Amino acid sequence: MRKKPFHIVVSAALLVTLSACGSSKTTDTTASSAASTAAPSAAGTAAPATTGPKTKLTYWTNDRGASDHIKAEIAKYNAENKDNIEVEVTIMADNYEQSLDVAFASNQAPDIIKTSGSNFAPFIKKGYLEPLDTYMSPEFKNRFKNLIIDDGNRVDNKIYSLPNYGITWRLIYNVDLFQKAGIAAPPKTIDEMVEDAKKLTAAGKDIGAYGFAGNFKNNGGFGRTASPIVALSAGMLDGFNFKTGKFDFSSQIPMLEALRKMKQDGSMIPGFELLDIDPLRAQFAEGKIGMYINHASEPGVFKNQFPAKIKWSAAPLPTIDGTVNGASPFSNATVWLAMSAKSANKAKAWKFLESMYGPDVLKTYQEDSVGISAVPDVLAVAKKPSFANMDLFLPNKFDALFPVVPAVTPEGKNLGDEALRYILEGGDVNKITTDLSTRYNAALDKARKEGTTKNQPMPDFDAKNLQGSLVK
């Protein structure tokens, strides 16, 4: 594990600002009322790489889960960079987007901004981000050639950010309960998943364990469970057909029926419709759940947040019928850092970004189990992650970045609502999915007319061609 020279306590509406010069004073760094506490830096006494006044850059992030890692990297950069740059990082707990709005409105915007899939498009629309195309050398850009995604990190043919790490999706399973049930290997198909859930429930009856769970309290619970399996099986992500440019929720029928069957069998943990992800994880760590679908955050969760009292593992996702006609989505991996369009030091800001996107820095995020790298040349050199079972989430040839699914808001109930109702109550699944497709496509047509999405059909799209884009 890399040395972490700072310590941070983050609470609601708290900003923590650090720089290599490491003053212990408290300062107000935004126009908001948030407090900002600085701690002494281990690198504060390091000799500068060059003499003369330093160029100070400000870097804002809401990635508080990686706060120790980020601070260590910034301290190292401040001590070692040859460009006479000093970076001050602000790690924000809450109200990140709102604080940035205030900062830009008051001409106090940071030079470097952490962006994400949820705020990338709004930041572009507000003019917060600087296109990076003119700064990137051909060699630098080539490192990310398979990772440039329209509406993901490129808008109107301009690149505004690049990936660092993301999450792969796996079947998380209770090895102890599998052994008790006499199941030799995790399921390869969803029919096997249904049957295994029944066996696990029977084997766990004496301890109150159930075969399957999902966090259906969250409206995205069905998507978290079903979407990666459907994408791997049929190449459609979140019910969207990239080839036709239309939503087609008939693709979700096999998973809807499988989850309904597990509910009817009594294999789903009782109260799953009210279960959020952390209570689910806590139950799994206690041995009360046989399997569920989730992503590469779990090794850290079961090491630190809910230490597992069982032997657990992770396996590739099952598919609908045992065949792979798509790819497994590599999520949250299109963007990371961006340059502020209002930075007064853009050349130096690019120097910093270029360093942060270098393989020597990016590989540490994977090695320290912050996330799974999205960058092929980093995957090739990064050491095994430090957390147990994290290696099971490293990309294989089936993990890939998909195009961006257009964000729409349909009239009436959405997929998550309708899916949960069907799992609980049953009904005409064909009628339900046809109605969903009709309403989502009406919302998509409206979004295209209003210009809120630039998504268009991709007649040549084949998700199988995405395979091998991260690793062979």
TrEMBL record:
Region (Disordered): 29-57, 448-472
SUPFAM superfamilies: Periplasmic binding protein-like II (SSF53850)
Keywords: Signal
Cleavable signal peptide: 1-22
Pfam families, alphabetized: SBP_bac_1
Domain of life: Bacteria
InterPro entries in UniProt: Bact_solute-bd_prot1 (IPR050490), SBP (IPR006059)
Biased amino acid composition, Low complexity: 29-56
Record bears the keyword Ribosomal protein: no
PANTHER family to which the protein is assigned, alphabetical: ARABINOSE-BINDING PROTEIN-RELATED, DIACETYLCHITOBIOSE BINDING PROTEIN DASA
Protein name stated in the entry: ABC transporter substrate-binding protein
Species annotation: Paenibacillus pectinilyticus
Phylogenetic classification of the source organism: Bacteria, Bacillati, Bacillota, Bacilli, Bacillales
